[in-house]
Hints:
Mean pLDDT of chain B: 95
CATH topology of the largest domain in chain B: Rossmann fold
Strand order of the largest sheet of chain A: 1-2
Number of domains of chain B: 2
Distance between the termini of chain B: 27 Å
Strand content of chain A: 5-15%
CATH class of the largest domain in chain B: Alpha Beta
Strand content of chain B: 15-25%
Number of helices of chain A: 4
Shape of chain A: globular
Helix content of chain B: 25-40%
Structural class of chain A: mainly alpha
Largest sheet of chain B: 4 strands, parallel
Oligomer: heterodimer
Radius of gyration of chain A: 16 Å
Number of helices of chain B: 8
Radius of gyration of chain B: 22 Å
Distance between the termini of chain A: 50 Å
Order of helices and strands of chain B: EHEHHEHEHEEEHEEHH
Number of domains of chain A: 1
Shape of chain B: elongated
Amino acid sequence: MRLKIPTNFRIIRVPCTGKVDIIHILRAFEKGADGVYVVGCMEGDCHFNEGNFRARKRVEQAARVLEKIGVGKDRVRMYNLSSGEGPLFAQYSTEMVNRVKEMGPSPIRLARQQMAKKADAA
Amino acid sequence: MIIAEKKPIEEIIREVEAYDRILVLGCNECVTVCEAGGKKEVEVLASVLRMNFMAQNREKTIDERTLERQCDHEYLEEIRDVIDQYDAVISLACGVGVQFAAEKYMTTPVLPGVNTVCLGANEDRGLWTERCQACGSCVLARTGGICPVSRCAKRVLNGPCGGSTNGKCEISKDTDCAWQLIIDRLKALGKMDDYEIVAPVKDWSTDRAGGPRTVTREDVKI
């Protein structure tokens, strides 16, 4: 299809979005990610019946806790599409990247950068 | 098992704000099963705390550890050699674990990370309900295996009371009348004759009324 997608995100493949746990999302933020989005199959089409519903719950949990600690709930999001919808994947990726760009860098990333600078100076 | 639920993250942050080196200490037993204080919850809480303080540019050490149990000496001893590295411990165990850790390590504050709720069962995914109040003298043999102490709002021992309507308790339409359940079960067991036996006044001295309780077993003491 040779679709254009942003280059500033990393795809982490999982067997099913049901494998994604809240800790995976949080660790990404802890390591400095500005945003995380989980792309699962269409609701009702999960091969394992409820994998994508589980993922949605975990994304919601992560959003709630990220909001409380000042990172922001909008930095994490769940999308659903079928495996045949490449163009939609590209569209969602662009949408998410633009949304994160609007919000700017995550406070965790900024703090990590500052810490690294301090360590370099010392 | 003992049912606990996570404390709100804001409350935990407030509790630990003043400390720089914090150990998040989980428990592999009941709180793991009710998804409130096991290894997984320790990882999540530690990560959230690290990010919270990082976002405020405050450098803190937040480590993770999960013990087999926090209500036994032998497992709590496992952190003796590292406890001095921390200014405070957030224990995700039930109230028993928090207190036992606190008793053992007198000079390190041990803070609760969960609210201990009750003794209950995992009725459904994400649903835990009370089944026992540890009253110290079990009446289940007489009540068809359904506990009027923990499941009747009034702890009535010869029920139901007048507040029972269509099998529900007057406190809430979602709460089953324990005595309706007892009668249904006694009927199913063909033991309705038992229902006619008036329960004597219960000795509540084995409950909390008699103060903190202990169990001493000379036969197992060494």
